[in-house]
Amino acid sequence: xxxxxxxxAVLGLALAAGAIxxxxxxxxxxxxxxxxxxxxxxxxxxxxxxxxxxVLTNALQLWQFRTAGQSERMRFLPLFLFAGGLxxxxxxxxxxxxxxxTLVFSLGVLLLGxxxxxxxxxxxxxxxxxxxxxxxxxxxxxxVLQGATGISAPVGVTFIHAMGLERGAHLYAVSAMFLVLGLxxxxxxxxxxxxxxxxxxxxxxxxxxxxxxxPIGQALAGRLSRRAFDLMILIFLGLMGLKMVLGL
Length: 248
Known about the structure:
It is built from ten helices and no strands. It is mainly alpha-helical.
């Protein structure tokens, strides 16, 4: 019983920490919580739980920042999201056989490369035209990674961050990406036979600490300047890349 309570406490703390980062940056919940859930339940089980929480949390954030969706810079989103949905299907099919460590290491190297590039050239950004042309490729890569590992931020959030959007537009675009990928991933997990009914109940229980701690992250980020918010995202991406390269 003591071990079970200890495990639940660790899971709750992981979800709370991920929720704070999610509230502040629009991402980070799966990245922080998924490794802990994987250790406790296994990768497929953890991916199943996160797929449900991803839909719910990002639906909330998308509604919160819905006015930013009217921006001209959001014109890249439709093709980006469509390609991402296709990628999720492929990634889910590869969930059993994908060489995960090689993929994760390669993505970590790319993230660190982006981090160093932005540090050395802070004003570098993806303009609207390039976003529309490159969006489908970034979306597809995000989807494949989401379906195979449950984490799409290394590709999708990096691409969106490179566009240099305002905080509201950034959070809207990131939430739209996570929501659409989650909406495609959930039925893909069901059809493939991976998703179990009990996992849905567990995901709903996981939403309790998430809903409690997400507003804390939002309140903290709301006090940051545009430059500080952008730097916070960049640091988070750099730490993510380092974590992936080192296999922590």
